[in-house]
Design brief:
The protein is an alpha/beta fold. Helix content is about 35%, strand content about 20%.
Amino acid sequence: MQRLQIGLPKPSLEELLPGGDAIFLHRPHGLPCHGITPEVIRDFEQLSQLLLANPGARRYSVPADLTLVTYNNRPFKSRIERCYAAYGIEQAVVLGKEVTRWDWSAKVRLVLDFLEAGRCRTRYLAVTDADDVLIVNDPATLLDRFRGYSCDILFCNTFVDWPPSQPCRDFETIKNYRHPLHCRLSAGGYVGDREALLSYLRILFAAYQKREDWALFNGSFDDQLGWRSLHARYHPSIQVDTACRVFKRYDVFRSCIE
């Protein structure tokens, strides 16, 4: 006689959300040793489904002086685009539709071109990756949270030294020693002042063109390594969201609040 298999109940939205009240969650690719376990991946996918369904029919508002930006060169909408749409955010800018061959320099060049063309009419931008980021709280308070850091650009956090860099690792460890689980810079999301961002993007793009060592990983340009190097050079103008006020990494430590 065959036994009836009864599955465990699926976790609720509240059970899947991490501690704190960050606006964006970032679940990058990675290995279990980087905090990205099969369970983390499963939970993030379940959380995505619940959020995109928006059972409470919530609607979010974007500050008047903020532009939301992402990148996507495929014919279908990314996760963050669908998330924005589910909560009534229609004015997000999607860059990169014309890009046929993607590499990490595109994340720099696309935003740089957008700014240099004068297409951004707001003072501030919040830029996120497309497929591994969710918006989980109303961004109405985003600029207030950002201004609390007194910096020009605020980046998403991680605990992983990637790409590996001893100078960047040492700087982040010492500078953010009170927040070891959120001390390192992740380029999966950032919010910043338009003019300051423009100047730093020009530095990064020049590093890409000149193949500067400080922005190369295994012989190729890496935007995250470039930003980590600029963070060490230009802190406190560039900072990491160690308190998870705007961004939080979705990993094995997601429910830890330092």
